[in-house]
Amino acid sequence: MKFSTLTDRIQEKSAASDGLSIDPWAVHTLATQRVQNGENITVLSIGQEVNEVTPKRIVDKAVESLQSGRHHYADVCGDVKLRTAIAHYHEKLTGQSAHSSMVTVFAGAQNALFSLAQVLLQAGDEVILVAPYYTTYQATFGAPGPTVVTVQVDTEDHYRLDEQKLLNAINPSTRAIVLNAPNNPLGSRYSASQLERIVAACVKQQIWLILDAVYLDIVEPDSIDLPHQLPGATDILITVGSLSKSHRMTGWRIGWAVGSEELHAHLYNLSVCMHYGLPPFIQDAATVALEQSAQTPVTVRNVMNERRRIAVAELTDLAPVRLIDPEQGMFILLDVEALGTTAYDFAIALLDAEKVSVLPCDGFGPGGRYLVRIGLCVDGEELQNACKSISRFIASNNL
């Protein structure tokens, strides 16, 4: 049977060391299968706290709401009370004034990004990604048919973006630029001067600037520069957020996009065709998360900082492997190029030898081929032992 060309565009594949295509989630999938089969695997290959649960008050609100009958159709763009709470939360995080009419609720940030691609891009357009980027970006933004252009960070300059390279990539077909701050996987950020130049270019040439900010609320508020208050930003900027990381709600699937009212109207039309509204009892719980659980992101941040301290202490001295520590966020990375192997091959061998699952960044675009992402997913002694295993594996040079 025949399928549309979309099925090719949404494949998350990249080239392995043998020239064949690989699934960027293959190592994680294999690890979880082994866990289900009873093996004792430490899973550090996903961005969630595997030993933590959603705060009780949020869960209680979902149960109460469900039992009270809040399980019928809801506002297609999100309950107005939730959208108002998101607008206030957005203002607090970014300093940008927002209103419920600028907010559209989605089933997670990934759904928001995919939806934005559908209403902003089409065949003949170009969209610019900064690589390494989160592994789904290529498929997400390529799905409507535009040409995906990548601008790679400078590996010789601490993985920093040269914004002039990004600006040079703009041409009359450019319709959107996607930034991720803090970046996944690198944890890197953009300086105020970089953002000023990028926003000015977007305003001048009427290019959408999409900011994926799902990790924004688990880093120190004064540690990151944002574009929201720059001249003209309101017209071109779209901010995507979620509760997944900040409120330990990965499985609840609540995310959003904040942009112009005109954008909101188009996202409404798409949402009618796509999901026709999300479960109201989950939206009620999300409202409680935003309004009554302000301490949770701070708790997550503190937990990540302590886990990072443990991991870095074990992984600092791994020559010739290079440790990349963004100092905040949910991940640290290893550059394994000096071992003469790709990230994918390293991760597979590590899983077999030491029963530790990490995420190879081969599928994170150019610049990710030799990067291994280690999630700060487990607590204390388990994380320390896993890092000791990684260190032992590198020292054995058994690749």
SSE diagram, text form:
Layout: H1 6-9, E1 14-15, E2 21-22, H2 26-36, E3 42-43, H3 56-67, H4 80-94, E4 103-106, H5 109-120, E5 126-131, H6 137-142, E6 147-152, H7 163-168, E7 174-180, H8 192-205, E8 208-212, H9 233-236, E9 237-242, E10 255-258, H10 261-274, H11 280-292, H12 295-315, E11 322-324, E12 331-335, H13 343-354, E13 356-357, E14 359-360, E15 371-375, H14 380-396
Parallel strand pairs: 3-13, 5-6, 5-7, 7-8, 8-9
Antiparallel strand pairs: 1-2, 4-10, 9-10, 11-12, 12-15, 14-15
Helix pairs in contact: 3-11, 4-11, 5-10, 12-14
Protein model, in words:
This protein has 399 residues and is α/β, with parallel strands linked by helices. The protein folds into two domains: 6-53 and 296-394, Aspartate Aminotransferase, domain 1; 70-292, 3-Layer(aba) Sandwich (Aspartate Aminotransferase, domain 2), CATH 3.40.640. Helix content is 40%, strand content 15%. It has helices at residues 6-9, 26-36, 56-67, 80-94, 109-120, 137-142, 163-168, 192-205, 233-236, 261-274, 280-292, 295-315, 343-354, 380-396, and strands at 14-15, 21-22, 42-43, 103-106, 126-131, 147-152, 174-180, 208-212, 237-242, 255-258, 322-324, 331-335, 356-357, 359-360, 371-375. The strands form four sheets. The protein has a seven-stranded mixed beta sheet, sandwiched between helices. Strands 11-12-15-14 form a four-stranded antiparallel beta sheet, covered by helices on one side. Strand 1 and strand 2 form a beta hairpin. Helix 3 runs antiparallel to helix 11 and helix 4 runs parallel beside helix 11 (280-292). The two termini are 42 Å apart. The model is unreliable at 14-20 (pLDDT under 50).
